[in-house]
């Protein structure tokens, strides 16, 4: 997130923070589907609000926040198609023993493709290293 914001600030661009709620989380619980969906949306709103506040405080950037529901790769592609101003996709790679994360792993396995450049930022970079890259 810091890399994307610093890059946007340095290039005169903007930041879109996207949160995708997987649809599979709701289908097995027909009786409580709407409650679970509302709770997932509240969680997404909270996470995005905190992330947006961090960007406001650290870099003075006012990001756009978007919440979508569906398959992550498909929803990222849909967002890119709908917002023609999106010029680069920035992903964070985790450093857990399970791997860098499902989206980054799918990119490595080529099961996800995006029509714009993708930058993957390792989790272990310091703020100084991120600033130097942006």
How large a portion of the residues is in β-strands, by DSSP E?
Answer: 15-25%
Proportion in helices: 40-55%
Mean pLDDT across all amino acids: 83
Poorly predicted regions are: none
CATH fold field value: Rossmann fold
The CATH H-level homologous superfamily: HUPs
Q: Whole-Å distance between the termini? A: 11 Å
> How large, in whole angstroms, is the Cα Rg?
16 Å
How many discrete structural domains? 1
Query: Biggest sheet, strands in spatial order?
Result: 1-2
User: Shape, please?
Assistant: globular
**Which structural class best describes the helix and strand composition?**
alpha/beta
CATH class: Alpha Beta
Number of helices: 5
Number of strands: 4
Supply the CATH architecture: 3-Layer(aba) Sandwich
Order of helices and strands: HEHEHEHEH
Describe the model:
- With 134 residues, this protein is an alpha/beta fold.
- The chain has one domain: HUPs (Rossmann fold), CATH 3.40.50.620.
- The chain has 5 helices and 4 strands; from the N terminus they run αβαβαβαβα.
- Strand 3 (89-93), helix 4 and strand 4 form a beta-alpha-beta unit.
- It is globular, with a radius of gyration of 16 Å.
Q: Outline of this structure?
A:
The protein is α/β, with parallel strands linked by helices. The protein is 46% helix and 16% strand. Helix 1 packs parallel to helix 5 (127-133).
């Amino acid at each position: 997130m810091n890399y994307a914001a610093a890059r946007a600030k340095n290039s005169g661009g903007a930041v879109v923070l996207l949160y995708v709620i997987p649809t599979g989380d709701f289908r097995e619980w027909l009786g409580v589907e709407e409650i679970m969906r509302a709770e997932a949306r509240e969680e997404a709103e909270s996470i995005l609000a905190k992330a947006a506040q961090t960007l406001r405080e650290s870099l003075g950037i006012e990001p756009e926040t978007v919440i979508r529901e569906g398959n992550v790769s498909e929803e990222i592609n849909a967002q890119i198609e709908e917002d023609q101003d999106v010029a680069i996709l920035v992903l964070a790679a985790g450093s857990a023993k399970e791997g860098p994360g499902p989206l980054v792993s799918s990119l490595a396995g080529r099961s996800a493709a995006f029509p714009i450049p993708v930058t993957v930022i390792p989790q272990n970079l310091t703020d100084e290293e991120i600033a130097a890259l942006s």
